[in-house]
Design a protein that fits this description.
Blueprint: E1 9-16, E2 20-26, E3 32-38, E4 44-52, E5 55-64, E6 68-72, E7 83-87, E8 91-95, E9 108-111, E10 117-123, E11 134-139, E12 144-147, E13 156-158, E14 169-175, E15 184-189, E16 193-198, E17 203-209, E18 214-219, E19 228-233, E20 237-242, E21 255-259, E22 265-271, E23 274-282, E24 286-293, E25 299-301, E26 308-310, E27 314-322, E28 328-333, E29 340-345, E30 349-355
Antiparallel strand pairs: 1-30, 2-3, 3-4, 4-5, 6-7, 7-8, 8-9, 10-11, 11-12, 12-13, 14-15, 15-16, 16-17, 18-19, 19-20, 20-21, 22-23, 23-24, 24-27, 25-26, 28-29, 29-30
């Protein structure tokens, strides 16, 4: 692979912390980011760091009774900038980052699940997506729940049927929120199941199985009609689905499969400024940058059935860089500074990176 003219993935700084950081998100319109994790004794860590040249400084922090696993700003306004978190006890909490002193109550808190909340996502805030701001959570108890924090009960729930074995939900993501009535949630499970739920009709629209646990899911954009979905999994694989054309009658989508990282592909995060570019993070501590190229025609007519069949494009590896000796389990792009990202690794470090030449791909 000739990378001389390709985007370069550069480590700006690495910062050690005294807890395991599981997720980090940029605070909107700022040089700060929030990081959540778990101390060795099992308590939760919530810190706000500010990027100050070649260093990081902690500007706010809070230790909580239970470890925190995931976080999102997706359901908050630019003005409020409230962080939603999921913890090991199954609690969904929303925090005012200006009030993290000991004893200050969260803006909202509910015991949403019977076990750890593995994944969380938000929509309708930060000028992304239409309709009411909502939060979706996925848990080890097998349930996926959608929340509007103006009420205590979930507005939608996807749960195991009576007598059915509960599968551990590892990943959730919103999409298709392009007007005030349309919205979907995609869920990934430890047994390889993927389920697509339409919140408008409260119906399961599509499901499949990819044979390996689904660690991460993300649509290329949340606020447009379904376009592409990247699914990351165990066994060094990720899949790209073209979601524009549903195949009848087998209820499937065209997709491609790529090998990556030689270990678990923890997640994929699309560049906010270009939905056809994304970064994947690996269990071997590497970051891979990819670009998708569309085919000349996105669908063809099946000569036998007369139905439309989706046509996949191609996926190109632009560059790869080793950032850690341990898995990199989260990554978040800055929405205002193209190429700037924060990532967390299981060696208890926070990584600030810069990706160059993204305007040329």
């Amino acid at each position: 692979m000739d990378v001389s003219a390709a985007p370069q993935i550069i480590e700006h700084l690495s910062h050690a912390v005294n807890f395991t950081p599981f997720d980090a998100k940029w605070v909107p319109m700022s040089a700060k980011f929030a990081v959540v994790g778990c101390f060795p004794k099992g308590s939760g860590a919530l810190q706000v760091h500010e990027l100050d040249g070649a260093a990081l400084k902690v500007v706010a922090q809070r230790e909580l009774p239970e470890g925190l696993k995931c976080a999102t700003f997706g359901a908050t306004s630019y003005e409020a900038r409230q962080l939603a978190t999921g913890d090991y006890a199954g609690k969904l909490s929303v925090w005012d980052l200006e009030r993290l002193e000991a004893g200050a109550a969260p803006v909202f808190q509910v015991k949403g699940h019977n076990s750890i909340i593995n994944a969380i996502d938000g929509i309708g805030g930060l000028n992304v997506g239409s309709g009411a701001p909502e939060i979706v959570t996925g848990s080890r108890d097998g349930c996926v729940k959608v929340w509007d924090i103006r009420q205590r009960d979930p507005v939608a729930s996807l749960e195991p049927a009576p007598g059915q074995t509960a599968r551990d939900c590892w990943s959730v993501s919103f999409g298709n929120s392009f007007n005030d009535s349309e919205r979907m949630v995609v869920c990934g499970y430890d047994n390889g199941d993927i389920k697509l739920l339409c919140l408008k009709t409260n119906k399961l629209l599509w499901e499949t199985n990819v044979q390996n646990g689904v660690v991460g899911l993300q649509f290329d954009r949340k606020d447009i009609p379904l376009n592409k979905l990247v699914v990351t999994s165990l066994e060094s694989k990720f899949r790209v689905y073209d979601m524009r054309t549903l195949h009848e009658p087998d209820n499937s989508y065209a997709h491609l499969v790529e090998q990556a990282h030689k270990s678990t592909v923890w997640l994929a995060r699309h560049l906010p400024q270009n939905r056809d570019v994304w970064m994947t993070t690996g269990g071997n501590g590497t970051l891979n940058l990819y670009k998708y190229t569309y085919p000349a025609q996105r669908w063809l007519t099946d000569p036998e059935s007369g139905a439309k069949r989706g046509v996949m494009g191609s996926c190109q590896l632009l560059n790869s860089r080793k950032f850690s000796d341990q898995p990199i389990v989260s990554l978040d792009w800055h929405t205002d500074k193209a190429g700037l990202f924060v990532a967390t690794a299981l060696d208890q470090t926070l990584k600030i990176g810069i990706t160059t030449k993204l305007n040329s791909v």
